[in-house]
């Protein structure tokens, strides 16, 4: 009995001990929980602060990038406005706000029959480069669909020939005729104003000696950047020009050739229908583009240029032939379309070199031919030449057109521009380049 009484007396003490122990543990657990919550809250607050900091940095970076782009685009507009006063390859730096913090460096370079505008904006050690290809609105001499120099012979037309626009013609005038028993089918000889032409072509903004001088200065030696035939790519963001030089004939079958590149061949260049070619320049004795090719390029040759059937040379393309013999020629075959300018400079003083445009072959732009033209297709824009001829199986006709079309670009909502017959007071950005 006494044993149980003693045991009963001990139980409250045990309970009190257990209660104190539980309360102590509870306080310790609560403290740990508070510490954990404090750490979590601190981490979250730190994350929020860090996120806000990086958001602010991102916002500042975005704002700076927008400002750099705007300043670089402003530089392109300045290049347009000051075009006539700027020399090629001479950098001009402008302090935009007079604080020495934001500036733009401007460079104008010749890129074949077009100009390159390069604008580099700078702010707080960051840079943005904008590069654009520029051309020029045709001058007043290129407003006619046809300018035929006065060689004392009338222009004779037959069949479905359509001169749809103003034409400058020899003082002997224009008349209808029969060719292969085909008479003229339309009501008017010229659907526009007839003007008198001169004995020589109007002065061009870009002439043979200009192109030859540019080609002589263009990078074309082994000290310049050399490119592999399988990786013909070079960005316009670079101030340098990629150069690929081939002693043997160069054939582009399925390769990609794109960017600020000049391809040189001492023999010639051929391009297959599956090649991916854009923006490059070709300098070679001859160029052959195989049937079905589609792309854009500029070519400067001395022997011949042949554009195959159903080829589409997209704008801005350009072809120039600085003839080295009286056998040199340009041929635009059936269904081929050239969107851009074509220039032919004859060898010697007789101007006997020829441009052949076959049926359904089309030039959209300016064709300046210091020689003879056989036009069986279409010139949409402006044709200036020193003679027109027609070769049939039986007869060679001088100053004769049969089933030819000459018409302006405007109704087709096209406005092709280059240096060739351009007005330097009216530059226009053609496309942005990368």
Structural class: alpha/beta
Helix content: 10-25%
* Major sheet details: 21 strands, mixed
The Cα radius of gyration reads 36 Å
Can you give me a brief rundown of this structure?
The chain has helices spanning 2-81, 208-217; strands at 92-95, 102-111, 114-123, 126-138, 146-148, 155-158, 162-163, 167-169, 174-176, 194-196, 232-234, 242-246, 250-252, 256-259, 261-265, 269-271, 276-278, 280-283, 286-289, 294-295, 297-301, 304-307, 312-322, 329-332, 337-345, 354-357, 362-375, 378-391, 396-398, 400-402, 405-407, 422-433. By secondary structure, it is an alpha/beta fold.
Overview of this structure, please?
Residues 222-226 have low confidence and may be disordered. The chain has a 21-stranded mixed β-sheet that branches. It has a domain at 140-426. It is an alpha/beta fold and 434 residues long. Helices cover 21% and strands 41% of the residues. The protein has two helices and 32 strands.
